[in-house]
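Posting for a labmate who doesn't have an account.
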Amino acid sequence: MKPKLDIALVLAAVEAELGTISGWRTVTDGEDSQTLSVRLGTDDFILRINARAAGLRKMLSATSALLQPFCPSRRLCALAS
């Protein structure tokens, strides 16, 4: 089931963890995820929100070597792995 969280709550949680968001926009959701594009300073990130961690673990296991150098927060990466 795709989560539908309040965008303001999501952005507040991201800012509490990573700092000021300088921009954001909605992007096409995934089959199982709510998806946003966020800008932190000059860097853009895709934020996927899944109801269960299994979907994120599947994606990370396939791309972990590519994602690790770019993950802005060890805590957020750890939550998804």
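Reply:
Got it, the structure tokens are right above this. The first helix runs from residue 7 to 18.
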